[in-house]
Amino acid sequence: MSSGWLSAPLPDQGGQLSEIDTGVPHIARVYDYWLGGKDNFAADRAAAEAAMREDPNVVEGVRGNRAFLARAVRYLAGQAGIRQFLDIGTGIPAADNTHEVAQDMAPECRVVYVDNDPIVLAHARALLTSEPGGATAYLDQDLRNVAEITQAAAGTLDLTRPVAVMLIGILHCIPDEDDPAGVVGQLMGAVPPGSYLVISHPANDINSPGVRRLASRLNELMPVKLRFRSRAEVAGLFDGLELVEPGLVRAPEWRPDSDAGLANPAAVWAGVARKN
Ligand SMILES: C[S@@+](CC[C@H](N)C(=O)[O-])C[C@H]1O[C@@H](n2cnc3c(N)ncnc32)[C@H](O)[C@@H]1O
Question: Which atom of ligand 1 is nearest to the CA of 174?
Answer without folding.
Answer: 19
